[in-house]
Design a protein that fits this description.
It is built from 26 helices and 8 strands. By secondary structure, it is α/β, with parallel strands linked by helices. The strands form 2 sheets. It has a 6-stranded mixed beta sheet with strand order 6-7-5-3-4-8, with helices on both faces. A two-stranded antiparallel ribbon has the order 1-2. The longest helix is centred in the N-terminal third of the chain and has 26 residues.
Length: 554
């Protein structure tokens, strides 16, 4: 048995109290998790597609379903590997194309991911910690919201959990398979095995009996040569490179279209932006949307001695395992601060549950009434589903995305009924929502004239071409609370504009004045809003001044 295995067995109270303890079967764990999260998501299953779902992932999966092409043609390819899109296309082929089918398919992925996290937690700690960690992760607002959205980050995270579980259980073939599938779900998942490979290589350089030797788990009798242990971690590079080769042959680009590469890589390589993004990433991992409850509880609990149980202290997660988590966390945080135009919390899903796991394990180890503390944290997470924080955040990180979808659905139903033949000025993603009925917002395509956003500059530019459209659909493209904490520091707003594309959307009444129209429909819900503006036109203008469907103002 390896050093890690001995440490894990020593720390498990289940084995202390019951030599015949049997871990629950993964199929049973999956069934319980899937049934639970399916019931919790029932009110959300029929919602039309939201934001990046509508803009990329659903169109790419639909193209795969209809044409068999791994490269989308109804949207510009971003070079994301096709595993999740193929999964959705498979469900649509055998069950039918509908939002409820899509969201059920993604809940299946979420349940599978949580099962992997449960197995991982059970491998490095015990069943009690695994149950609490899995429940907290499922209820964490970002994970909960992403569970039914057709996006790729949660799938990549779940496959990474399964790979780490196989690593701790010393199953190299499964390590290679799970990490390969994770990389084919999203390319950034390759960071975890590469970070682990580098850490493992460093372990053979550090003296085993030295001060830092305990940070690694050394046992050549079971683990084999360094090359044999590192090979499964490098194997996922092969399928990912093959995908990029295929993408290059088909499109002429390796890492997606030039605009995608510019936004996510070329424009992010700035030292000041990196430091700002690094701070945001650390906040997303340790404090975002009530995560600070867990972080603070963990730090306070560390001031207490371990709880005694059967004349022995409750064991910690073995130090080598904690170091592996830390190495992967640091690698992902630094890498995702360096690249990625949008600093979205979902990009941290492969590592945030690891923080939750360590936090829950610390509470279990040092608090007699640890279940009360964990329950309080779980309640705080549930409250964050509905409560929007006093700082800017992405609506996809809690049920604010549901508010967005419902408001847009109502506004676009009104727009289609009242102005069925109109050219409509709007911004992405509403431009896709109006022109693609299969996204679930309209019953037939509408003609759109697109602007980038609803800032003062864009509205003034649109006013010069007001003869090209008869109505405008304006909405909040970024969530900003009325009394944001960041508003107290004007320099932060300037930095966001420079490095993160921040802008302020004009209120509907101001936009209507600039466009020379009037607001005929408006709705606001918890800081988000949408409105329809009618632009009066003469009969001659309506007959002559027309722009092509789907046009973009210069």
């Amino acid at each position: 048995m390896s050093e890690f295995g001995r440490a894990r067995r020593a720390c498990s109270p289940d084995r202390m109290t019951s030599p015949m303890h049997v871990r629950p079967h993964p199929a049973l764990v999956f069934a319980i998790i899937f049934a639970t999260i399916f019931v919790l998501h029932l009110p959300l299953l029929s919602l039309p597609y939201f934001w990046d779902e509508a803009g990329y992932y659903v169109p790419a999966a639909r193209d795969l379903l209809l044409t068999g092409s791994l490269i989308p043609h109804t949207t510009v390819s971003n070079a994301h590997p096709p595993l999740v899109m193929a999964w959705l296309a498979l469900w649509w082929k055998f069950v039918g194309y509908a939002p409820a089918v899509t969201r059920s398919a993604m809940l299946f992925v979420a349940a599978f991911s949580l099962t992997g996290l449960f197995r991982l937690a059970e491998s490095v700690s015990n069943t009690r910690v695994a149950i609490a960690c899995t429940a907290c992760t499922a209820l964490y607002p970002v994970f909960f919201a992403q569970s039914s959205l057709a996006q790729v980050d949660l799938a990549a995270a779940g496959l990474t959990f399964w790979a780490l579980c196989a690593w701790f259980e010393e199953r190299p073939v499964k390590v290679a398979v799970w990490f390969s599938l994770a990389a084919l779900a999203k390319e950034t998942a390759i960071l975890a095995p590469l970070a682990l490979a580098i850490w493992l290589a460093a372990g053979w350089i550090v003296p085993r009996n030295g001060v830092f030797g305990k940070l690694w788990s050394h046992d050549e009798s079971t683990s084999g040569s360094p090359a044999r242990r590192i090979f499964p971690l490098l194997a996922p590079v092969v399928p990912l490179l093959l995908w990029y080769l295929y993408h290059y042959i088909r499109t002429g680009y390796v890492f997606g279209n030039p605009e995608f590469f510019r936004y996510n890589v070329a424009e992010t390589l700035n030292p000041v932006r990196f430091l700002l993004a690094l701070g945001l990433r650390l906040w997303q991992v340790f404090g975002y949307l009530h995560l600070w409850f867990l972080t603070l509880g963990m730090l306070l609990a560390m001031l207490l001695p371990p709880v005694k149980q059967h004349d022995a202290s409750r064991g910690r997660i073995p130090i080598p395992a904690q170091m592996i988590f830390l190495v992967i966390l640091v690698t992902c945080v630094v890498a995702m601060a360096l690249i990625g135009g949008a600093v979205l919390a979902r990009y941290m899903l492969p590592v945030t549950p690891l923080v939750i796991l360590v936090g829950v394990s610390t509470l279990w180890r040092r608090l007699h009434y640890w279940t009360i503390a964990v329950s309080a944290i779980a309640i705080a997470f549930v409250l964050a589903w509905f409560w929007n924080p006093p700082y800017g955040f992405a609506p996809e990180d809690n049920l604010a995305y549901r508010d967005y979808v419902v408001m847009h659905q109502r506004a676009e139903t009104f727009l289609e009924a009242r102005y069925p033949m109109a050219h409509v000025l709007t911004a992405w993603p509403a431009s896709d929502e109006l022109s693609r009925p299969w996204l679930g917002y309209t019953t037939r395509p509408m003609q759109v004239v697109r602007v980038e956003d609803f800032s003062l500059e864009q509205m003034l530019s649109a006013a010069d071409y007001s003869g090209h459209f008869e109505a405008a659909l304006v909405f909040s493209t970024k969530y900003e609370p009325v009394h944001a904490l960041s508003e107290r520091w004007s320099k932060w707003r300037d930095l966001k504009r420079k490095f993160f594309g921040f802008h302020q959307d004009l209120p509907p009444s101001f936009a209507a004045k600039i466009l020379g129209g009037r607001v005929v429909y408006s709705e606001e819900l918890q800081g988000q809003w949408v409105a329809v503006i009618e632009i009066p036109r003469s009969e001659i203008e309506n007959a002559v001044l027309r722009s092509p469907a789907g046009s973009h103002l210069p």
